[in-house]
Specification:
This protein has 453 residues and is α/β, with parallel strands linked by helices. It is 43% helix and 10% strand.
Length: 453
């Protein structure tokens, strides 16, 4: 299988990555991946929580490897932030807009309103600002793990400021990266968002969105850029009803995005398109740029070849995983196992062994006197990791929490085995860290089990 990489650009890219990582944690997405978020805004809270979980699943200090030698996904964040309250004119020219001469070169690219805008107020669907103001970050190496056959999917909106302005320099940066690694077969695909929501109360007109879309699509067809994008999906078609009546505001997007209400929700279509393009073979190089694209509807049709990518089925799949994770706490599973000599018959022999092996590994590293309360601490840590202020349950919409789960469900989980050679003693350097990694692993396996019966 090719190595999968997702680059999420801007707020739209972050929302799509949220859904994709949620589906991975719940076992709908099976293949591990590496993700990079590039944004002028902070990393979404749900992605911060997922990022912490993935870090705790790592059991080797020299590689992203978890239990059973399975690779753990990574999630990197690359902030593209211009700090301070300076105006665009001051950042670009060193002086205020009113002090610029009428023939200053900056006026050829930016209007007076653009030049007077404070950076702290955002980009307001001005892609030219994004590409200029964040340009210095593209002189640095991207924090990406590239190896062998690598499929990269870039997710960005082409009607806004951040994604629209960064997509072309990003594609060019990936071209340079490919040239530096001649032994790597790097294939770039993209999920672009067009007119996928009604202009809201920010005062941004539909005409500006359409203008940005035309400009960005035109720049992607320039010689040397279009050759790098082998395949893409364009999400956001009024005729296909891939359209949100109201865009989420910043506060809503910083929290947990709600579960999509319909199969034509543009974020859901974009998530399906990511899954399709990561696996799908690309078009031949001599195919015209426009013929390399598919619509959100076409992406959904191809995604549905795997039934779990249908919205209703994915909902049920996620619900079963969260119910099992919730049951670990409500039924005090670890406490019961620790005090029950017949735990294997009630729960699962593999689950009992997994907890015992984590306990044994920690005891071997730290000594029996420091780990005798390991089970009690593990049960408490699982509760905190799931229900705390930054708990994993916050990644899932509330509708997925608080559903009953049978004990029989635990026996269906293929609980992995702790193998000595996969566990790095330096990552179990104290009881607290060992308990955290054990708790993260138990929750992850409970959520991700492919038990769908």
């Amino acid at each position: 299988m090719p190595h999968h990489v997702i680059i999420a650009v801007g707020g739209t890219g972050q929302v799509v990555l949220h859904y994709y990582t949620l589906l991975y944690v719940a076992g709908v997405v099976r293949e591990p991946f590496d993700a990079l978020v590039m944004d002028t805004d902070d990393l979404n809270k749900s992605l911060q929580i997922t990022q912490r979980l993935l870090g705790l699943l790592k059991l080797r200090s020299d590689a992203n490897v978890g239990l059973a030698s399975r690779r753990v996904p990574t999630l990197e964040y690359m902030p593209l932030r211009v700090k301070g309250r300076a105006t665009v004119s001051e950042i670009l020219t060193g002086t205020s807009e009113t002090s610029l001469g009428k023939d200053h070169p900056a006026r050829a690219w930016f209007g007076r309103e653009d030049l007077q805008q404070e950076i702290s107020q955002g980009l307001f669907a001005r892609p030219a600002l994004s590409s200029v103001l964040t340009g210095k970050w593209f002189s640095e190496d991207l924090p990406l793990q590239i190896r062998g056959d690598t499929n990269i999917v870039v997710v960005a909106s082409l009607i806004g400021g951040t994604g629209g302005g960064l997509i072309t320099p990003l594609v060019d940066k990936l071209r340079q990266l490919k040239e530096k690694k001649p032994g790597v077969n790097l294939s770039v695909r993209a999920v672009f968002f067009g007119e996928y929501f009604d202009p809201d109360r920010t005062g941004i007109s539909r005409e500006r969105h359409l203008s940005n879309l035309r400009m960005c699509l035109g720049s992607l067809q320039e010689q040397g850029v279009q050759d790098e994008i082998k395949h893409f999906a364009l999400i956001g078609d009024r005729q296909e009803k891939e359209f949100l009546l109201k865009r989420q505001d910043n506060r809503e997007r910083d929290g947990t995005p709600p579960w999509p209400e319909t199969d034509t929700d543009p974020f859901w279509c974009g998530t399906q398109a990511v899954a399709v393009l990561l696996d799908e073979k690309t078009k031949e190089k001599d195919v015209k740029f426009g013929q390399r694209g598919i619509t959100g509807k076409q992406a959904a049709e191809r995604a549905h070849q795997k039934p779990q990518y249908k919205l209703k089925d994915a909902h049920e799949w996620v619900l079963r995983g969260t119910s099992r994770a919730e049951a670990i706490i409500l039924k005090s599973v670890v406490d019961h196992i620790a005090g029950d000599p017949f735990a294997s018959t009630v729960w699962s022999r593999a689950l009992v062994k997994l907890i015992a092996d984590f306990w044994s590994e920690t005891t071997r590293n730290l000594g029996e006197d420091r780990t005798q309360d390991f089970p009690q601490r593990l049960q408490t840590e699982i509760k905190g990791l799931w229900e705390g202020d930054n708990g994993l349950s916050k990644v899932f919409p509330e509708e997925f929490i608080k559903r009953e789960c049978s004990l029989r469900s635990f026996k269906r989980v293929p609980w992995p085995v702790v193998e000595d050679f996969t566990v790095d003693a330096s990552l179990l350097g104290n009881v607290e860290e060992a308990v955290q990694r054990a708790a993260a692993t138990l929750l992850f396996e409970a959520l991700r089990s492919c038990d769908h019966a």
